[in-house]
Amino acid sequence: MDILDGPARLMIVSDLDHTMVDYHDPENLSLLRFNALWESHYRHNSLLVFSTGRSPTLYKELRREKPLLTPNITIMSVGTEITYGERMVPDVGWENFLNEKWNREIVIKESSKFPQLSLQSSTEQRPHKVSFYVQKEQAESVIKSLYECLSNKGLDVKIIYSGGMDLDILPQGAGKGQALAYLLKKFDADGRRPINTLACGDSGNDAELFSIPDVHGVMVSNAQEELLKWYADNGKDNPKIIHAGERCAAGIIQAIGHFGLGPNSSPRDTKDLWNCKLDNFTPEYDVVLFYLLYERWLRAEVENSVTAIQNMKKIVSENGVLIHPSGVEKSLHGSIDAFAACYGDKKLKQFRVWLDRVSTSQISSDAWLVKFDKWEMTDEGRQCCLTTVLLNTKHKKPKEFILVHIHETWMDGYAAKDRSTWFF
């Protein structure tokens, strides 16, 4: 589990549907706020963990639909699968642990005797998870009878009901909470336990996350009935658990501030980006800010003025070079001039920009390389470039940076259809 050299400053463990992702937010603004906050302040020394009830198939579908960041760790299928990194390398030790006192064939055979249960799709049936739908009014009695039936067969199982309709049967040692406890134990063994951990959820299958010792917890404002009931019965007097006043990702940002876990002001919350003031600018923050300016210019959300373009030129080198993903070399100042003429081209259209997997390395006393995936979401779909930016510190302002070189390459399968509109 070679993720960070030392303990993570913060590990966020978040459910996805209705927690990180808000389906009542068609422009994904709260998620994009979180993305900008994470990549500018946390990516370099913290861990992002997605803990979802979705199978790998449905998880990948969601990533194609929503502007989700790439997590360091993914917990799927209600805590029965743990994978690492972008390639989603499985944790074999976790799989072996779950095999104890588990027999999937017996679970399927015995559960088929309950007509109240209807199987979910084949993609949701996993090696250590059997999933059904059940009517809300029948759930309690079915769970009790089913548990007794499986126990009589010598199985040690856990039955989780969530979302007002989903019923999952898992090995007793599985679940989102147990998967988190397993990860923390692995970090402890390496002497790298995160300094702070924040668990985030909205439904019944997230309750276990809030039961792990020394973990902060946030139930987003739109939390479902079964989780609110758990909170009333078990967590109301726990100062480490809050019911946020904000929905979904906005509630996660609120919790970061409430518990004092680090910065909770996203670059997207800044109205005047030209005059943004920070005690300590970082290369990560600088590139996030640059591309946010780019988005707002095309959406006509900043003033269309000569001064605005002059300000943009001040943060790039006069002799700076852009290697366009087409392979053409361009002047950075010339690219800004061309870009200036397109003010408002994306106004009232679907157009958002976000950065993912931002990583920084200092290559000299005054120079940094920043690498990231730069995404654009438009009416035509998604485009993405693998991007490398060289920044130098300004001679008279050593705490500020200037962009010297930008090199972009299309990500496989995500090249823009109209490549003339891709500026940076």
Secondary structure blueprint with pairings:
Layout: E1 11-14, H1 29-42, E2 47-51, H2 56-65, E3 73-76, E4 81-84, E5 89-90, H3 92-98, H4 104-111, E6 118-119, E7 130-133, H5 136-152, E8 157-162, E9 166-171, H6 176-189, E10 197-201, E11 216-219, H7 225-235, E12 241-243, H8 248-258, H9 283-298, H10 306-314, E13 316-323, E14 329-331, H11 332-340, E15 351-364, E16 367-378, E17 381-393, E18 401-410
Parallel strand pairs: 1-2, 1-10, 2-3, 10-11, 11-12, 13-18
Antiparallel strand pairs: 3-4, 4-5, 6-7, 7-9, 8-9, 13-14, 15-16, 16-17, 17-18
At the fold tier of CATH, the topology name of the largest domain is Rossmann fold
Which range best describes the helical content: under 10%, 10-25%, 25-40%, 40-55%, 55-70% or over 70%? 25-40%
Series of H and E elements: EHEHEEEHHEEHEEHEEHEHHHEEHEEEE
CATH homologous superfamily descriptor of the largest domain: HAD superfamily/HAD-like
Strand share of the residues?
A: 25-35%
The CATH C-level name of the largest domain is Alpha Beta
Q: What is the β-strand count?
A: 18
Sketch the major β-sheet: 8 strands, mixed
Whole-number average pLDDT? 93
What is the strand arrangement across the widest sheet? 5-4-3-2-1-10-11-12
User: What is the CA-based Rg, rounded?
Assistant: 24 Å
Count of all domains: 3
Low-confidence stretches: none
User: Given the helix and strand composition, which structural class is it?
Assistant: alpha/beta
CATH-derived architecture of the largest domain: 3-Layer(aba) Sandwich
